[in-house]
Write a structure and sequence with these properties.
This protein is mainly alpha-helical. It has 2 domains: 146 residues; 78 residues, Cd81 Antigen, Extracellular Domain, Chain: A. The chain contains 8 helices and no strands. The longest helix has 46 residues.
């Protein structure tokens, strides 16, 4: 026996919110694809921020995998609600609840360690810039650090961490990548790369944060409506004549 009256309303609300869940999964997937496309622009920035390594490619791949998973989960929730399959809905609810708990835990850890993040980034930027100057003095061309700093300075139109004086303070010379078109006869960039890079990441982080909040809200609503629909299906089954 199918759900009736209030149960029917819950059924279609469940389908609606799972459709939103599916759409948000597509958004996360799109963000992951964007991250992979823009890898060349941001990879160098993450190399100097993360002291010689970068997880940007892995981050993009992770977003693609998560986006596909969320989209499939939303699609399965729609099918479970449409078919009024109680077992499928119970599995869906447990899975979404676990994902939501993990998201809250990750957000809490990020908030707890937010103060240490800036210190770590400053330390890594100073470390990689010192390596740049050391390689510069030893005439090492094409090292990963030199290539990364040059790419960042040219792409973001900035120089060193806080400005060109950073090189002089370390006994180095201001590289051509700190000048417009890498031409030392043109404009010398005065703004530091830390501020420029963080502005670029912050712009996209707002979009990402908005998507995460949207997913969390839809998750909560999907869980609530799934539980209510499971109860209604259970009531309907209890009236079935065997």
């Amino acid at each position: 026996m199918g759900v009736q009256n209030c149960g029917t309303v819950l059924k279609y609300l469940m389908v609606f919110f799972n459709f939103l869940f599916f759409i948000l999964g597509i958004v996360v997937l799109g963000f992951g694809i964007y991250a992979r496309i823009k890898q060349s622009d941001y990879n160098s920035a993450l190399v100097i921020i993360d002291a010689g390594t970068s997880q940007w490619e892995s981050f993009g791949s992770l977003c693609i995998a998560v986006g596909v998973f969320i989209a499939l989960l939303g699609g399965s929730g729609c099918i479970g609600a449409g078919k009024e399959h109680r077992g499928c809905l119970i599995f869906f609810t447990i899975l979404v609840a676990l994902i939501f708990i993990l998201e809250v835990a990750a957000g809490g850890l990020g908030y707890h360690y937010r103060g240490k993040l800036d210190d770590k980034i400053n330390m890594n930027l100073n470390k990689t810039l010192n390596e740049y100057v050391d390689d510069q003095k030893m005439l090492v061309n094409g090292s990963k650090i030199i290539t990364s700093w040059d790419n960042v300075q040219h792409t973001f139109k900035c120089c060193a961490i806080h400005g060109p004086t950073d090189y002089g303070n370390r006994g180095g010379t201001t590289p051509a990548s700190c000048y417009a078109d890498k031409d030392t006869s043109k404009t010398l960039y005065q703004q530091g790369c830390k501020e420029k890079v963080f502005d670029a990441f912050t712009d996209h982080w707002k979009e990402w944060a908005g998507a995460v909040v949207g997913i969390a809200v839809v998750q909560l609503l999907a869980i609530v409506f799934a539980i209510l629909l499971i109860r209604e299906i259970g009531k309907g089954d209890s009236y079935t004549v065997v």
